[in-house]
Amino acid sequence: MRDLAARSRTASLPGHPAPAGDARVRTNLPHLLSLEARSRALSFLPRQPARSVLNGRHASRLRGRGLSFEELRGYLPGDDVRSIDWKVTARTGEPYVRVMTEERDRPALIVVDQRMSMFFGSRLNMKSVTAAEAAALTAFRILDQGDRVGGIVFGDATIAEIRPQRSRAALRRFLTAIADANGLLSADAPTVEPMPLSKILRATARIAPKNHLVIVLSDFDGVDEEVERLVSGLARRNDLILGLVTDPMAHDLPEGLRLVVSDGTLQAEIDTGDRAGHRALTEMAAGRLAKVLDWQRKYGPPVLPLSSGEETLPQMRRLMGLGPR
Question: What would the DSSP string read from start to end of 59-74?
Answer without folding.
Answer: TTS---S-EEEEEEEE
